[in-house]
Amino acid sequence: MKDLFRTKIGRLRVIGYLEGISLLVLVFIAVPMKYYFGNPSLSKALGPIHGAIFLLFLFNTLSVGVEQNWKFKTTTWRVILACFIPFGTFYIDSRILSKLKEKE
């Protein structure tokens, strides 16, 4: 686990997990609580947190993409698109990010 924090790709993977978890909690727990049970407190608390993690994921994806010379049409757009889809960041992590090696 400590190895993930030593590289930019590892940090992107950790941020991806956090973004994915926050999106799932927001979509499947906070939004139903708000609209079906009339309790918007979790949405109000989690919304800004998810937004910050989302932006952090986007900026880190672009940063790693430039550093690793990813082709935008083949890799970068897929990683960015994943953060809009529930479970997308977990899929992208297993398909793309876990297989990448840090460039020297």
Automatic annotation (TrEMBL):
Supply the alphabetized keyword list.
Answer: Cell membrane, Membrane, Transmembrane, Transmembrane helix
The record's section on InterPro entries has: DUF3817_TM (IPR023845)
List membrane-spanning regions.
Answer: 12-33, 45-63, 75-92
Do the record's keywords include RNA-binding? no
Highest taxon of the source? Answer: Bacteria
Kindly indicate whether the keyword Secreted belongs to this entry.
no
Identify its membrane topology class: Multi-pass membrane protein
Q: Which residue ranges does the record assign to the DUF3817 domain? A: 10-96
List where in the cell it is found: Cell membrane
What GO cellular-component annotations does this UniProt entry give? plasma membrane
Q: Which Pfam families match?
A: DUF3817
NCBIfam families reported in the protein's UniProt record: integ_memb_HG
Q: Which PANTHER family match?
A: MEMBRANE PROTEIN, MEMBRANE PROTEIN-RELATED
What is this protein called in UniProt?
Answer: DUF3817 domain-containing protein
Organism from which the protein derives = Chitinophaga eiseniae
